[in-house]
Specification:
Length: about 80
Amino acid sequence: MLTVPVWLFVALILAPIAAMWYVQARLLPYRKQPQDWLLVLSYRGLRPDRYTDAGQPWLRRLWLLFILVIPWIVLVAVLLRPQ
């Protein structure tokens, strides 16, 4: 049976993924080639030359989330693992 600690654990594990989806959605209007709507999902979609200057802050936030997602998941798994 799923208890509150398990739900909290799952929510904390998935929080950065939801944040990445939000930042990716905010980044989409700044693409230089609007027809490539799946571009942000590939590694080529993370290149700065693919976006306008106004989208660069969102791209940096996305890079930061990609860098921090693995340490976040490991930290949550070590500190709050369900018994």
